[in-house]
Amino acid sequence: MPRLKMARAMLEEAEVRRVAASLGIPIIGFTEATPLLEIKPHLEARQTTNGPTPFVGVPPDKRVDYRQAYGDAAAVIVIGLPYTLKMSPPKNTQGKGRLSAFCRGEDYHLRLSRKMEALMAALKVKHPQLDYRLFVDNGKLVDRGSAWRAGLGFYGKNNTLIHPQYGSGFFIGQILVSTPIAFVPAIPLKSLCGSCRRCLDACPHGALESGFSLDASRCISYLTQKKKLSEVEAQRVQYFVYGCDLCQLACPYNAHLPEECWEDGPMDAAWPELKALSKMDEATFDAVFTGSALHWRGCQTLVRNSKLLLKFLEKEC
């Protein structure tokens, strides 16, 4: 590591890791704030093939440049919070839809932001000059790319980042800090997928193609979040009423993850009643889903998905 960098560094990796561990942050890594050029070709290729990345209004050259998001960025702290990916189905799934694991419980944006704010508050006690910006899946930066460069996992054929211990069941947040950090650079992990194609075969509509790519128009997760659907796209809303976990559940690197037991609960449970969702009004939607990761898309999208899924289930019977 360059001697000048060590001399300028005002934060130490060990200190940040120690504070993070005390706050219940089990996954953490570090990277320079230099442009993430390693993944730019991938972003450009995807844009050429499928058009702009869904829900992202920033071109690839800006997404890989940390200083476009925060001009004073000197280093990047990447954290991860595990979540329960696997959930056993109820005894009777008739008439029920399925919610993706990412939108069950409290909104992961809120969880990550709270943890990152707590981490920064603790560090600022000794480093009051420390300034920072938080980013959680908001389109300006490539969260998985930063986590990959920080050594937190490898890219799977299903485009998720796979951690050696937690599989792909973890949320990612980034903190761009104004103060340099003395850290040992991680070696980005190469894919360990090999010849496995379980995720490719698990996708009903072939959205993953041959791997490491995505045809968003065939991805159930994307389609259930998209506002307007073509007739063909509407027919592809299957199995999940919001999001989709099929490619992750098929991944052998997630096989060891614990399974949470399903219990009867309100409409934000893992398997909500589709007829109730299809008749939901705005007031009920806000009462049930405020504070969850699916609330941002609005009531009408969930109502539409419920009706489409009911049609699909009728055909399946």
TrEMBL record:
One of its GO terms (molecular function) is 4 iron, 4 sulfur cluster binding. One of its GO terms (biological process) is tRNA queuosine(34) biosynthetic process. Residues 183-213 form the 4Fe-4S ferredoxin-type domain. It comes from the Bacteria. Keywords: 4Fe-4S, Cytoplasm, Iron, Iron-sulfur, Metal-binding, Oxidoreductase, Queuosine biosynthesis, tRNA processing. NCBIfam families: tRNA epoxyqueuosine(34) reductase QueG (TIGR00276). PANTHER family: EPOXYQUEUOSINE REDUCTASE. This is Epoxyqueuosine reductase. It comes from Eubacterium barkeri (Clostridium barkeri). The lineage of its organism: Bacteria, Bacillati, Bacillota, Clostridia, Eubacteriales.
